[in-house]
Amino acid sequence: MKINRLLLLCLLLCSNLVLAAENTTIRLGVMASGTLAWELAAMKNEGLLENSDFRLETVAIANQQAGKVALQAGSVDMIVSDWIWTSSMRAEGHDYSFYPYSDTSGGLMVSGDSPIKTLADLKGKKLGIAGGELDKNWLLLQALGRQQGIDLNASVEKVYGAPPLLSQQLTSQRLDALLTYWQFAARLEAQGYRQLLSGEDLIRQLGIQESVPSLGYVFKQSWGEQHKAALQSFLQTAQTAKETLCTSEPAWQKILALTETDNAATQQQLRTRYCAGRVKQWGEAEQQAAARIYQWLHQLGDNKLTGKTDQLQPGTFWTSH
């Protein structure tokens, strides 16, 4: 009788654990035009959400800033953002953590026949900068310029604006060069424009050999600890979806409408750049490299980008241990 009661108790507990896992809902902030939407569609199309340890609830957000507001307000559990913001928020007492999503981070674009071949050639030219004066790649580009004895901030005519508008200005020859996000750089490449430097090139030329992911999933560390099994399951599912889009032609064909272009060359270039951004290595060396980059950005951004602290905050990067 005692054994039967123990067995019944075990069955009830196990049943409750399964239900708890199945009922763990992850509220994910998603932009309609971002690549995260590609992966979510692949998860659904390829049946990756069936029998998963979580339920996914997507919440539409207009842009990255809206996502940050939603996360702070508690209306979503997770967004895609960067580790710089994550660290600065931790410095203010928030317990956000970052897990890498992509290490593709845009590039410096010029026309195919442009005479601009080096940073020195930008002197006196009109440069478009997506993301504003505190854009990470713009700050790093200035750092590289200083390393080469060039004050880019003083020697170029800067034009800040939204990426689509700046792309238009480049194609209509109202800009000589454009520092923009990777999706827009890929679209320009498909039209014959040349990438003078990628975000990865910038990091390498500044002396860092490790690939440092620029974007990642950001969530409260306390929430992650509370829902560890569901979170790990989601992260693995997302990785599988990304790999599927990069290795399966049928899977890629199903999400083509989300690329927002009918041009085959543009679709292919978007896929190429997206897949090149897969995170292949993420460990102590990459995290130390991120800490070095953070210190540069703190100095170059005059504290405006990173906040007052000059050190990447402990706990910025999520570990499942």
UniProtKB/TrEMBL annotation:
Residues of the signal peptide: 1-20
Claim: Chaperone is one of the keywords in the record: no
InterPro entries in alphabetical order: SsuA/THI5 (IPR015168)
SsuA/THI5-like domain location: 65-241
Keyword annotations of the record: Signal
Pfam families associated with the record: NMT1 (PF09084)
Keyword Signal found: yes
Protein name: ABC transporter substrate-binding protein
Source organism: Methylomonas rapida
